[in-house]
């Protein structure tokens, strides 16, 4: 999830390796519900995201402004609304993918009224996302986020943790306070999601400390679903809940978000090895250099091939740049790259099936489809 | 709050220094609502606490058992239900002061039915308390809690933080899910309390990094109220909410808990300087040795006396055991000890006024009175 969370990366033009889209392209279609005019495939998601950001920001700012002084200051810095000294900043609060999923799912099932009703859920999900970013940056010792120093490097570790805690409280409070009959079920889902995110982060950090050959593919998939899929699924489910959708639809929306999240993670992991440094903004093979147990790597390591043995041996050594090409080749020859790409396509196809179950009208499902495409193969 | 939170300390027989009780003693009275028989002043609070622990534990255990695997394991260790290897432990989950305040406040205003209804609120407050303990131990680098190694020393810093996060989510979920019409207001209060606890912990950690003469008495009082008073106040208020009490009564209960919490902190700070090592289990003058900016110290430093100047000079030096007696004497001569004792008595008297406002019937208020006495002058 770390890569997705940084939200600063440039993406390659198509899905890695294949040149084939993993799912049907979205056709241009007329704007609905007073939404922005769309000018083609690539821009639909951007328009949806921009509109979500514009809708959710006032709600988010009002929530953050209700915090006590120090917590508010750290949160406002983290969201990019203020500099460290408290002066206003231009603001880059991220791409608003989760709020967009909430609002788009609500609109798909309940129209503009449901979209409005779901605004507080969109803000709550974004608060939880940012609470995990504040904490993950501490745990992963990441020093940069959205092109700025991370909060813990500016305010210290304790303050970044405390501000994250305050954002979690704010998120669940926002949901619980709403007049919507879905409030109670929404709190349950979001609180369970927080627990799953924590379990996922735990799995991620402990996995990185274990020997490469001790990690199973199932473990990494469960971890990726918890860290990446759970909150995307929860966002979609909350949108459904606020639209008054039934249990079946809500559960299908959750699975849609989870599968799309897994597809994203698989592709992100492929890019982490074979991505073009000019586009990713990271050195080639960064994940291999960091000995990351990413999905293609673990798939390769557990393939039982001769290349797996070679890869395990390479991963057991300290990083040496001259081995990089050979390491990437070993992952590829052990089938790690193909496996990840087939899995990603499979996950997207499952996501589409769940989406059709939750929102049978393809016209109404268009926004969610565009967002799923966006997170798995951004063209900009 | 750290001292209160450790819940391992032995307390002196009476309020420090004066030999006078800061508030009227509680008289033995017949048990109500099927409660335990009471055998005198000192044991009433213990009986209330034991009963609260017995009532809240099944609720707590069920909640914790709903967490995903690793989060559950860390939480079960932290609560003392399991050893680090997952085998059952005798269990010392603390004195259950906060759950007891919730349940006793509910019973005082709504009888046994309200007490039962408030069980999930009691569990929620205890979950929040333990979430802050997990995090505070990390931030304060405390290695021991309830006579066992702290969770972060066993599972690592990240896991202790993550488990704390999961407990917060669980707490707010428990409240939101309940069928009680008070649920929504209860979530708001508990979430706001979490934000205040975080702000208080922030103030505490940053204050310790500042020069002693930069800290004002007001700042320390606000910090102590946020760290110690807020959750005690919230516990009482939640009890009132679940008993269907009106806004006035609930607000008075909150103020009662806050004032009692401040009285506790003042007395705890006095003990931290002049407490008997045999009873406190800590070396004499431990807080002075650690250069803690406790309430009596800051009162002394800001007194404008000659002793204040001497104290500031001593606090500016690295700790040297031979200066300990002189430092304690400087706090005393600058009026820090007297101030803290007068303040503590004043806070307890304010607490009593608020209690009378919230629960006018002295018989019904007895349990809360006993708990307030207990936290400010334990005789066992």
Short description:
2 copies of one chain form a homodimer. By secondary structure, chain A is an all-alpha fold.
Can you walk me through this structure?
Two copies of one chain form a homodimer. The first copy, chain A, is an all-alpha fold and 380 residues long. Chain A has one domain (39-370): Farnesyl Diphosphate Synthase. Chain A is built from 17 helices and two strands. Chain A has helices at residues 2-6, 41-65, 69-78, 97-117, 119-140, 151-155, 157-177, 183-209, 217-242, 247-274, 277-280, 286-289, 295-301, 306-316, 324-333, 336-358, 362-376; strands at residues 144-145, 148-149. A two-stranded antiparallel ribbon of chain A has the order 1-2. In chain A, a hairpin with a 2-residue loop joins strand 1 (144-145) and strand 2. In chain A, helix 4 packs antiparallel against helix 17. Chain A is globular, with a radius of gyration of 20 Å. The interface between A and B is large, with 45 and 45 residues.
Protein topology:
The structure is a homodimer of 380-residue chains.
Chain A: H1 2-6, H2 41-65, H3 69-78, H4 97-117, H5 119-140, E1 144-145, E2 148-149, H6 151-155, H7 157-177, H8 183-209, H9 217-242, H10 247-274, H11 277-280, H12 286-289, H13 295-301, H14 306-316, H15 324-333, H16 336-358, H17 362-376
Antiparallel strand pairs in A: 1-2
Helix pairs in contact in A: 2-4, 2-5, 2-17, 3-7, 4-5, 4-9, 4-17, 5-7, 5-8, 5-9, 7-8, 8-9, 9-10, 10-16, 10-17, 13-15, 13-16, 14-15, 16-17
Number of domains of chain A: 1
Query: What is the number of strand segments of chain A?
Result: 2
Distance between the termini of chain A: 20 Å
Structural class of chain A: mainly alpha
- State Rg of chain A: 20 Å
Number of helices in the DSSP assignment of chain A: 17
CATH class of chain A: Mainly Alpha
The percentage helix of chain A is: 55-70%
Gross morphology of chain A is globular
The chain pair with the largest interface is:
A-B, 45 and 45 residues
CATH fold descriptor of chain A: Farnesyl Diphosphate Synthase
Q: Strand portion of chain A, in percent?
A: under 5%
| Oligomer category | homodimer
Low-confidence parts of chain A: 1-40
Name given to the CATH homologous superfamily of chain A: Farnesyl Diphosphate Synthase
SSE order of chain A in H/E notation?
Answer: HHHHHEEHHHHHHHHHHHH
